[in-house]
């Protein structure tokens, strides 16, 4: 990225000499937003595909974008908030005491940082890291997830202003995906486990699995609440991975407990992915075909009494 990931370094060691520097604050902000777009793509692909992170938080130094209205008005004096990977600083009691308060989009970016930390936690065991160190990281992630979950109550998709609904849905999807991947990172392989030895009631599931299942239920509820207001808000291409996780999880729940609700939820998710296929073509079609194959596999197993 030829130094663009160090755009806001304070020591001057940001852009290499081969890169033409920005001519004003507005161009700095445009570059800042471009880098965050790459950051979002990296976190979404890496977390859901099991790939290493391409952007290293230890090298990344691009401040959060300024508030959208200030950017559109071309206000050079708008001050961005500093980038941080400190999970305690990402979200906390003082977050909404800032002036101006962070935008919903900035909260999405903060949740993306958490998503990257969860991906690292499950994917890379740091050299020299003791079990105690790893437990401490786990506690910090769990605390950040709890604080983000509390913040979600401020953003009710059924009552939020229509102009804000896209980012509010994005925030909910990102936080619930973080919860699923932290507490049950191998959800994509659940379908292979079968039902032998699986508890027959939800309350007897392992606590981590219950937390992931509750996050999946929150995603399902989000779809139901958002669809009457704006189906388009659900059709961002990088939501496909989250809804695919949701579908796989629901397949396991239906196979295990065989409740009509889980089957109805599966149909709804597959119909939503049909909309992705219509809007995004091959990208949506690949997910749709995989979901339908998995559903047929489970139906055949249930019919055969396995």
Keywords:
306 residues, mainly alpha, single chain
Q: Cα-atom Rg, whole angstroms? A: 21 Å
Return the structural class: mainly alpha
Please count the beta strands (DSSP E, at least 2 residues each): 0
Distance between the termini: 51 Å
Overall average residue pLDDT: 84
Helical proportion, percent range: 55-70%
Question: If you had to describe this structure to a student in words, what would you say it looks like?
Answer:
By secondary structure, the protein is mainly alpha-helical. 58% of the residues lie in helices and 0% in strands. The chain contains 10 helices and no strands. The protein has helices at residues 25-49, 68-72, 87-90, 104-123, 131-152, 165-183, 207-226, 240-257, 260-280, 282-304. Helix 1 crosses helix 4 (104-123), helix 5 runs antiparallel to helix 6 and helix 8 packs antiparallel against helix 9. The radius of gyration is 21 Å and the shape is globular.
